[in-house]
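Predict the holo structure. Ligand: beta-L-fucopyranose.
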Amino acid sequence: MSISTIPFRKTKSYSPLIAVLLLAMIQTSCRNNAVNPPEPYGACPTEQQVEWQRMEMNMFCHFGPNTFTDKEWGDGTEAESLFNPSALDCRQWVDVALNAGMKGIILTAKHHDGFCLWPSSQSSHTVAQSPWRDGQGDILKELQDACTGKIKMGVYISPWDRNHPAYGTDAYNTVFASTLYEVHRNYGPLFEQWFDGANGEGPKGKRQDYDWQLFNSTVLTINPQAVIFSDVGPGCRWVGNEDGSAGETCWSTLNADGHTPGAGSPGTDRLNEGDKRGTYWIPAETDVSIRKGWFWHAEEHPKSVEELLDIYYKSVGRNSLLLLNVPPDNRGLISAEDSLRLTELRKVLDNIFGNDLAKDAKVSASNVRGGKHNRTFSADNVIDTNYDSYWSVDDSVTSPTLTLKFKHSTTFNRILLQEYIPLGQRVATFHVEYLNDDGKWETLTQATTIGYKRILLVPKTTTRGLKIVIDEALACPTINRVGLFIDHLSTTEN
Ligand code: FUL
């Protein structure tokens, strides 16, 4: 029966067919209002890479024979008898890291001198040959026990080995792959595998032709969760310097094809800034030491809290993860001065970022995906604390404006912005305006990329309103956070 043939009845009850039709119409109209999220743009992170980036700050620990010989690079001839920390306690390392708010620890399980901090079956230059714990010790096991349930653990394992007799021959690639297998098999889950691209001579004066494909696939076969660091990833990339500074422009994408870690890597400028529209998601990791050297030296001391805060702004604040090296001393403990400095840093960061001055702002936007009444992508998603809610706009809109209005005059000197990176990195340039005393919009600062997190250092500004104007985006922007903060300690501006 067609609709036109349904007899019209003058009764108060509706026919079941009309009820069904009405329901179908309501459902269709609801579906029209439900707007799909933007399609992912370009190279996007894996779930592990998003989780990794959200860790923000991890601790690097350089520890080994160099800790006892006052060197930065051992030559592999150091006697195992030198390695004998008097009070090693990995639980203390974990406590220091947790107090500083770090989410992971990466230990140099093997540095260039080849000494293994675990009793490796692939080497005769290990803790098993040392007097420490009568040759029965295993630092990876102790660290694993200390980390479990508290903090994530990762490893640095140097392919360059100045001790191993097979180094410089084809056989060494298999030895090194077996070493990786052993570590990931026995001490996992490991969140990050750190590969140093250094490639120098071994004990026989020969260089190694590294089989990176074998190394990466060995790690990922046993531990698909691992984020692999090297100059060119695949999980994350070197930031191109050891000063603690990511590029002001910092793309998490890189055209890595044709490159290898070490001599074959892209130039340091490209590593520092990444590639706009790069073909792979390989975000920058900023590794830097709290002291001058990577290993502990009695005469060196930690950087000031001001210097560390500056590093934080230039790494985490520029779309990079900060891997801060804190070297255990020759007792096998992190020194009191380093630990104290990290506590100070944490206090400063909590003071600054513990109070978001934008949290009660009235937020509006020039465009909201699906229409201005669409709650899913509404402008005020940028001030909630839900990571997965974000403001977005219609697909065709790539230069929208977000406006924040404050009930009272608000004073800040730090602006924090975050893009919702599971959908890719999109914003290429933007500027910020504020409402001046004459009630006019005036430019406060301009910048390029945002990415996972961007912190803009601006002069102390008091205002009733702020505008984020996106000037260029590669696809419709997805912004999940805007925050305003005041930093009284460092008044540095970009
Ligand atoms: C470099 C190494 O040569 C240094 O000794 C240190 O381990 C640093 C993190 O990476 O390439």
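The two ends are 72 Å apart (CA to CA). The domain at 47-353 is CATH 3.20.20.80 (TIM Barrel).
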